[in-house]
Design a protein that fits this description.
Elements: H1 6-12, E1 17-20, E2 26-28, H2 29-45, E3 53-57, H3 62-74, E4 77-80, H4 87-96, E5 99-105, H5 109-119, E6 126-129, E7 137-138, H6 139-143, E8 158-159, E9 162-164, E10 170-175, H7 182-189, H8 191-194, E11 205-208, H9 215-226, E12 230-233, H10 239-249, E13 253-256, H11 258-265, H12 269-272, E14 282-285, H13 292-302, E15 306-311, E16 317-320, H14 322-327, E17 334-335, E18 339-344, E19 357-363, E20 368-370, H15 374-379, E21 381-382, E22 385-386, E23 391-394, E24 400-404, E25 410-412, E26 415-417, H16 419-427, E27 432-442, E28 446-455, H17 463-471, E29 485-488, H18 502-510
Parallel strand pairs: 1-12, 3-4, 3-5, 4-8, 5-6, 6-7, 11-12, 11-13, 13-14, 14-15, 28-29
Antiparallel strand pairs: 1-2, 9-10, 10-20, 15-16, 16-17, 18-19, 19-23, 21-22, 23-24, 25-26, 27-28
Length: 517
Amino acid sequence: MGTLGFWRLAQADPDWVAAVDPDGTEHTAGDLLARANRLTHALRSLGLEAGDGICGLVPNGADGLVLYLAALQAGWYYTPINWHLTGPEIGYIVADSEAKAYFVHARYAAEGARAAEESGINPKRCFAVAGEVPGFTPYESLVAGHPDTLPGERTAGATMHYTSGTTGRPKGVRRRLSGLDPDDGAELMTFLLSLFGITPGRPNAHLVTSPNYHTAVTQFGGTALHMGHTLVYVDKWDAEETLRLVERYRVTNTHMVPTHFKRLLALPEDVRSRYDVSSMRWMIHAAAPCPVPVKRAMLDWWGDCVYEYYAATEGGGTLATPEDWKAHPGTVGKAWPISELRIVDDDLNDVPAGTPGTIYMKMAGVSFDYKGDKAKTEANRLGDFFTVGDVGYLDQDGFLFLCDRKSDMIISGGANIYPAEIENEIMVHPKVADVAVFGIPDEEWGEQIKAVVEPAEGVTPGPGLAEEILASLEGRLSRMKWPKSIDFIAEMPREPNGKLLKRKLRDPYWEGRDSAI
C-alpha cells in the first residue's frame, strides 16, 4: 500500500482537477484538500472526536465532497441525507445518528431548518452551506481562522448510510472503524472498483449520475476519487446531457440504474450519433432489475463496457461482466472473490441450483450492525451470512438470478421505497379504514407506487377522496413516496390473524409479465 488515497494523491499533485460541479466549476485536488483540512481543524475545535458523526443535507458537488473527505480523515461517520425527505424525516436521521454537526445547503433551507428543530440538535452545531439557512451559522464562520495544513492523529472514518426497513423507519448501517491511516483505508476501498477491472491514475473520469446520498453513488464516486479519477457531478440527470458530459470530460466510468438506460435508448438516433462516447470503458449498473432487451440494446450501442452487480448497503455482492451476461442473459452475476452466497428455503436449508429461495450473503472481513437496533441486526443473520430479504436462485454455474426484490419493497427509478412507511401515513386519515401499498409495472421507472384503500364506513370512494388522501401527505412524506394512483376496494383481503394478503392485490397488475419485480 502507499500509492493511492485522495490525501496522498492531492499532496503529490495539487493541480489535478479532482471534481467538476454541475455548473462546470472545476476544483483542484489541492483546493479540496485545503478545505477538508480546514473543516477537520474547525470541527475538532468544537470537540469532535474519532467515532463521532456528522450529517450533510447537500446536493451533488464539491461541498458534499469536502464533508466526506474531512470525516474520512478524522475518524468520523459521515451520513449524507436524502434531500427529498421532509423535515421530520430528516430530523429523525440527524437525531438517530447522534450527529455532532449538521450541514445544510441553502437550497434545502426550509426542510433542513425544520429538521434541526425536530432533532433537538444544539443550534450551535448547525451550519449553512452556500447561502443562508435561518438560525444556522455560516460555513465560512465555522472554518475562518483555521489552518489548511494536514491535521495530526489522522484515522480512517466511514460513511453511515441510512437504509429503510420494512417497518418504515430507516436504520444506519454502521461498520467498525478500521483504525487505519486514511489513505491506507481508502486504498483498501479501491478493491471494489478493481473487481470491474477499473485502473487507477489519469486520464480517468467518473460521471456521478445519481444523488450522493445513495450508498453505491458515494462508494463508487469516492473510490474513483481515491484512484485519482476526476469526479464529474450532475445535478439533475438528463439523457442528452449525459452524452455531452461523457464526450466533454472523456468519461471512462460511471454508475447507473436501468431507468437511465431506458431514457438513453429513447433518444433519437441523430442525437445519439452526435456525441463521441468512445471513452467509456466501465458503465456499471445495479439497484434495480434490468430487462434483458434493454441490456442487449445498451451492449449493442456502447459495446462490451456494460457491467452489472448485485449488492446491499450492508455488504457482499455479485458481478456480471459483459461476457458473463451474454452467456447467462438476465443474471446479476457471480459472487465476488471475497463474498459468498447461500440460497435457502423457509426452513433455512440450502436449496439446489435452479430453485428460488432467500438470498443470503457474506463478505470476508466485513461486519456491520443497524445502529441502535440489535434485534434487527440479529434477525437478518444466518451464522456469518445476512439477508435483505431478496429472493433468487443460482444456476449450475453459480450465476445469481433475481426472482423478486423483497416481497414488498418497491424499486422505482433505482430508489428503494418501503410500503409500510407510506401505509402508516395514509392509515391515519379519518376516511381510510384500511390500506395496502405496493409496486405495479411502469415502463420508465420499473415500478410505480399504487395504493389500494378500503374507505371508512359511509365514505364514498372516488377521485375526490383520492385527492384528499394525497393532499394529507404534504409535508409528512416526501413526494417520491406518494402513490401515483389510488384504487378503492370494498374489503381488504386479510387472513383471520390480520395478515394482509398483498399478493392477491398485486398479482392482477403483473399478469402476463415475466417477473414480479
